[in-house]
Specification:
The complex is a heterotrimer. Chain A is built from 2 helices and 8 strands; from the N terminus they run αββββββββα. Chain A is of the alpha/beta class. Chain A has 2 domains: 30 residues; 106 residues. An 8-stranded mixed β-sheet of chain A has the order 7-1-4-3-2-6-5-8, with no helix packed on it. In chain A, a hairpin with a 6-residue loop joins strand 5 and strand 6. By secondary structure, chain B is of the alpha/beta class. Chain B contains 10 helices and 10 strands. In chain B, the strands form 2 sheets. In chain B, strands 6-7-8-3-9-10 form a 6-stranded mixed β-sheet, sandwiched between helices. A 4-stranded antiparallel β-sheet of chain B has the order 2-1-4-5, with helices on one face. Classes of the chains: A alpha/beta, B alpha/beta, C mainly alpha. At the A-C interface, helix 1 of A face helix 3, helix 7, helix 8 and helix 9 of C.
Chain lengths: 164, 276, 258
């Protein structure tokens, strides 16, 4: 029979270890420390895109490759029939110029799509509820291919290097 | 002490009337009447497999009868709620055949178990009580041992100390002598007798050990095949001329209780082509 | 033909009857739980038995699983030039699936089998009966603290397994194979969501509950002979493992099926 005290101490250590592991997972492995997905404090701005491609809610919003926020909603603006994307930007980045350009980019060849912000030179900065006017839609692979094919077709069928 | 079976002025501690109990198709008890008088050691004897242990479980309320009534301390056991049954059991100690000590607790903690579960006593007092009970069974020195370190006889004595921990009014002994060497058999018989007197208990001993039981019992019921086949004081039974009682008391291999398990005629069986 | 149908029917009835008994057993045990909460020492002793004593196997297995994930993941990802995402792969695999599932399987084999054997033997040696005769409800005194301890211990074990596994993957990926240290962590942090961790915890809570329930029920329901106890112990491991894997599919489809 092990002494009661030993049992209590080892169980105490076990519980501490378990919670330390959980804490470690939450802090180091996931991004809870940087951005909680729902309880993120920050301000929201919207941006309209012709096409969002495969952008998902929760995708990162970056400036110069550094994450500053997240996509928190994607919907349709019924006036323009364009995609309306809500971006929530962490409140520490409160100095983003109003004439910033938002582009939907892809990380790597097979990677996930994210929103890249390219700051402009305006003195006024983005605030809660503002809209980013300058946007660039996602590149859709099929569209690029068809553009290439059309331009080739316009050059004339005989000279296409693709056919021998 | 009065040796007549029923005395009008004393209400029996356990009163069983018309008890019938079946296990599947097998009838274990068939309309049994039985009284256990206060302050006495009553033995219930019979060959193995006659449901003596089952009788103790019925008295303790672990099983419910199919018919008939079992009154313990005037309460109808089969009709008690769980809570009432637990209250009743605090007044009954039971010594199991194997001792049934809790194997993960020391001797001390085993005896302390019922005290810690049911009394809010401070640890200091529990210690004193446990030592008193262990002293009564002569095992105060063994309090730090684990049940696996005890001999069979010692384990039963510890279990006895645990059974009397809550100062019950009645103790049920399930085959206390089985598998014991002569010395511990004698010790146990001595203890059962002494405790019954000093703690003014009522004891019920279930056993098939004729000799030891006859020495300590005040009154004996002999059972076989689900029925009572004899009752009386040890002296009366020793002189009984019932063939059933004779066979049991004298340990004869064949008699009313047959040596052979029921089977078709021997000759027919050898000649038949039945498998197994 | 009729025989086959009859056998099927008997089998189904048997299962139903057992499920009914297991449910009733659970309800009675939960009813016996409140008095135990006032005596935390009983639960702590069981936490020691099922949790602390499983720690070694959990830590060692977690380390190796993480290291294997690191090796396998690296070899696959390097073909796409995506070895920086190794951290993501290791962490997601561990947090979402392997952590909860493997630790539950190990738990069923290590802790639950011991629980069943212990309770089965207590039954076979009349200890449970003796408790009942001492006016103590074994469901409350013996079963409830074990059920609670198993339920609490497994999520902690699973978290330890995942955390150690991530470190194992880091050791192999970054330490041995030369994946960029910063990329390993930053990619992981970018892609692993807190929801993944919550979901992993929910899974291991469910697994802990189900495996311990099976273990204590099998022990309590065992035929009180050495053969019966050994069979019950086998059932605990087999049924427990199957329940974990089946439940994992159901929970995963709820969590990630949108």
């Amino acid at each position: 029979m092990i002494k009661t005290k030993t049992v209590e101490v080892t169980v105490g250590l076990f519980v501490i270890l378990g919670f330390a592991a959980l804490f470690y997972l939450a802090m180091q492995v996931s991004n809870l420390s940087a951005f909680g997905i729902s309880r993120m404090d920050g301000y929201s701005v919207t941006a309209h895109f012709e096409n969002v491609g495969s952008l998902k809610v929760g995708a990162p919003v970056t400036i110069a490759g550094v994450r500053v926020g997240r996509v928190t909603a994607i919907g349709i603006d019924h006036k323009t029939q364009e995609a309306a994307v809500q971006l929530t930007i962490s409140s520490e980045h409160n100095d983003i110029p109003l004439d910033t350009t938002a582009s939907i980019l892809t990380s790597g060849l097979l990677g996930e799509q994210y929103v890249g912000l390219e700051p402009g030179g305006d003195e006024k900065v983005l605030k809660e509820g503002d809209e980013i006017k300058l946007t660039q839609s996602a590149l859709v692979l099929e569209k690029i291919i068809s553009q290439v094919l059309f331009s080739k077709a316009a050059e004339g069928p005989g000279e296409s290097p693709a056919r021998k | 002490m009065d040796q007549t079976p029923v005395t009008e002025q004393r209400e029996p501690v356990v009163q069983i009337r018309g008890l019938t109990f079946r296990r599947g198709a097998r009838v274990i008890f068939d309309n049994v009447d039985l009284d256990i008088e206060r302050g006495r050691i009553t033995a219930i004897m019979g060959p193995s497999g006659t449901g003596k242990t089952t009788l103790l479980r019925l008295i303790g309320g672990q099983l419910r009868p199919d018919a008939g009534s079992i009154k313990v301390f005037g309460q109808e056991v089969g009709k008690l709620s769980r809570r009432e049954l637990f209250e009743l059991r605090k007044r009954i100690g039971m010594l199991f055949q194997s001792g049934a000590l809790l194997t993960d607790l020391t001797v001390f903690d085993n005896v302390a178990f019922p005290l810690r579960e049911h009394t809010g006593l401070p640890e200091r007092m529990i210690r004193d009580l446990v030592l008193i009970k262990l002293e009564a069974v002569g095992l105060r020195g063994a309090r730090g041992l684990m049940p696996s370190e005890l001999s069979g006889g010692m384990a039963r004595r510890v279990a006895l100390a645990r059974a009397i921990a809550l100062d019950p009014m009645m103790i049920l002994y399930d085959e206390p002598f089985t598998g014991q060497d002569p010395i511990s058999m004698g010790t146990l018989a001595q203890l059962i007798h002494a405790l019954n007197g000093t703690l003014s208990l009522t004891s019920v001993v279930v056993s098939h050990d004729v000799h030891e039981t006859s020495l300590i019992a005040d009154y004996i019921y002999v059972m076989s095949g689900g029925k009572l086949i004899g009752e009386g004081s040890p002296q009366t039974l020793a002189q009984s001329d019932s063939p059933w009682v004779r066979q049991f008391m004298d340990g004869l291999p064949d008699g009313p209780v047959p040596f052979h398990y029921p089977a078709p005629a021997y000759g027919d069986d050898l000649l038949s082509n039945d498998d197994a | 033909m009729l025989d086959a149908v009859q056998n099927l029917g008997r089998w189904a009835l048997n299962i139903l009857e057992r499920a009914g008994r297991a449910t009733l057993f659970l309800i009675l045990t939960l009813r016996g739980l409140p008095p135990i909460l006032a005596r935390p020492l009983l639960v702590i002793q069981q936490m020691h038995a099922v949790g602390v004593r499983s720690l070694l196997i959990i830590v060692v297995s977690g380390l190796f699983v993480g290291m294997v994930l690191g090796l396998q993941g690296y070899n696959t990802l390097v073909d796409f030039g995506a070895e920086q995402t190794l951290g993501v792969m290791v962490a997601l695999a561990l947090v979402r699936e392997l952590g909860p599932v493997i630790s539950a399987l190990l738990f069923a084999g290590r802790a639950c089998s011991a629980l069943t054997a212990e309770i089965g033997l207590m039954k076979a040696t009349e200890q449970l009966s003796a408790m009942e005769m001492m006016a103590t409800d074994p469901l409350s005194r013996v079963i409830a603290p074990r059920l609670l301890a198993g339920f609490l211990a497994l999520p902690l074990l699973a978290a330890i397994f995942s955390a150690i596994g991530v470190l194992g993957g880091y050791f192999v990926g970054v330490g041995l194979l030369g994946v960029d240290d910063g990329a390993f962590w930053s990619q992981m942090q970018a892609k692993v969501d807190p929801d993944d961790i919550y979901n992993g915890i929910i899974k291991s809570v469910a697994f802990g509950f189900v495996t311990t329930w099976i273990a204590v029920f099998q022990g309590y329901d065992a035929t009180p002979t050495s053969e019966g106890v050994s069979r019950a112990t086998t059932y605990t491991v087999v049924h427990g493992s199957l329940a974990v894997l089946g439940l994992d599919f159901v929970l995963t489809s709820f969590m990630f099926g949108d």
